[in-house]
Amino acid sequence: MSVDTTEIILVNESDEAVGSGEKLWVHQQGLLHRAFSVLIFNDNNELLVHQRVLGKYHSGGLWTNTCCGHPNVDEDIKAAAERRLGEEMGFTCNLDFLYKFHYKTTFENQLTENEIDYVFTGVYNDTFEVNPDEVLDYKWVTVTDIVEEVANNQQDYTFWFKKILKSEAFQEFVAAKPILS
């Protein structure tokens, strides 16, 4: 596991910034902080998901949404999501805000995600080269197929991705685009 000393934004339950802390320390303390998750679709109505590298500080080897991360101090959340998409997946595209939600979970290694998670969507159709330090594998999959895969193999997917797929906001997004369902 590599140590990331990046400072991330601490927030209160109203999502107001109240300070900052070093990323690993924040997760060790279980402090509420701001984060984002990105869902990228292609013109074949498939969602891009990836498998996290084994050496991640938590959830290594699990499948998840296209990318996720934390904004740096004084960084706009959408700009951070666009930055991280480039760093992890090797491309950028226009992102649209879908919704935000709060979740908290503690992992086997005693790190805790306690996040206000902003979910963004986008469309991308070109080729790309993922960052092998972040991504073990990736695939394009229909929403129907990923929902079924997650239901049958919950242990293989990240906590937050499962929450997103079950959310009313995501289900309404998919329903509004009938070709995705």
Task: Using brief descriptors, characterize the structure shown.
181 residues; alpha+beta; seven-stranded mixed beta sheet; two-stranded antiparallel sheet; 9 strands; 35% strand
Description:
Strands 3, 4, 5, 6, 7, 8 and 9 form a 7-stranded mixed β-sheet that branches. The chain has a two-stranded antiparallel sheet with strand order 1-2. It has helices at residues 23-29, 77-89, 143-152, 159-166, 168-176, and strands spanning 7-11, 17-22, 33-41, 46-52, 63-64, 67-69, 95-106, 112-123, 135-142. 26% of the residues lie in helices and 35% in strands. The protein is of the alpha+beta class and 181 residues long. The radius of gyration is 15 Å and the shape is globular.
The sequence of SSEs as H and E is EEHEEEEHEEEHHH
Looking at how many chains there are and whether they match, the oligomeric state comes to single chain
How much is the average pLDDT? 90
Roughly how many Å is the radius of gyration?
15 Å
Structural class: alpha+beta
Low-pLDDT stretches = none
Which geometry do the CA atoms define? globular
Q: Helical content, roughly?
A: 25-40%
Give the termini separation.
Answer: 37 Å
Tell me about the biggest sheet?
7 strands, mixed
Number of strands: 9
Number of helices: 5
